[in-house]
Hints:
Layout: H1 6-31, H2 34-59, H3 75-104, H4 113-141, H5 146-152, H6 157-185, H7 189-218, H8 224-234, E1 240-252, E2 255-264, H9 270-287, E3 291-299, H10 303-307
Parallel strand pairs: 2-3
Antiparallel strand pairs: 1-2
Amino acid sequence: xxxxxxxxxxxxxxxxxxxxxxxxxxxxxxxxxxxxxxxxxxxxxxxxxxxxxxxxxxxxxxxxxxxxxxxxxxxxxxxxxxxxxxxxxxxxxxxxxxxxxxxxxxxxxxxxxxxxxxxxxxxxxxxxxxxxxxxxxxxxxxxxxxxxxxxxxxxxxxxxxxxxxxxxxxxxxxxxxxxxxxxxxxxxxxxxxxxxxxxxxxxxxxxxxxxxxxxxxxxxxxxxxxxxxxxxxxxxxxxxxxxxxxxxxxxxxxxxxxxxxxxxxxxxxxxxxxxxxxxxxxxxxxxxxxxxxxxxxxxxxxxxxxxxxxxxxxxxxxxxxxxxx
Length: 325
């Protein structure tokens, strides 16, 4: 995890959420607002989520072992997936339950200035956290849209914090609206409706996180730009004349596995082929520094064999991509 990116955003979000959770719970005790109770649990769940991300980042830094020869980089994906579960159950489902109960058994708010004041404070604090997450994400996002960044980012921490902070800000506005309508109409049902809307919002965000982290857990390939750089680096036009097929896999956000069957000239000696492979690996690592595990298998390219189509047993995971040279 980048110390200047993901960690800074997580720590900022953790500090903000702990302060907000305490203030919301105090406001709930004085006012009896179910929106405030739902929001305090939401902030407490978010604090736990940020702690999970920090633990996942720490565990992912462990050295590889004989039992786990490719290291522990994907632990970050596991902990990010746990975040989606916590957000769904502790945050979303609790808020839905509280909203339903408040709609069923409404009561007038007391000491309205407590929830209103705390919500205003929380919006300011969450805006600071959200701003930090945006600032730390921009260098990695580049020219991508926010939707594309969240869908394609290999490091899970920043997308998780961005979605959590966005959900928190929208939830605070919903809570403020529910409390405001309850005060304006004297009907506590509006407070329950605001709580219910917060729960639905959190469940939707949790589902998005679950889908994206599930994809990372299953194993995603390198991005298109990285694949193009790797392909260009492998081929030297002398000994290595082309790539017969290639697979890439993220072992972690900053660690990439590259496995390829490469075409070499039939009249090259074993020593020349070995030297060409070593040179190709060096070029790949220079072009794509996160390509740390590289396996290149030399073969003689045959148009006749290529015309037969992909061999799924020889190339698990889908059809081989053949490049003619």
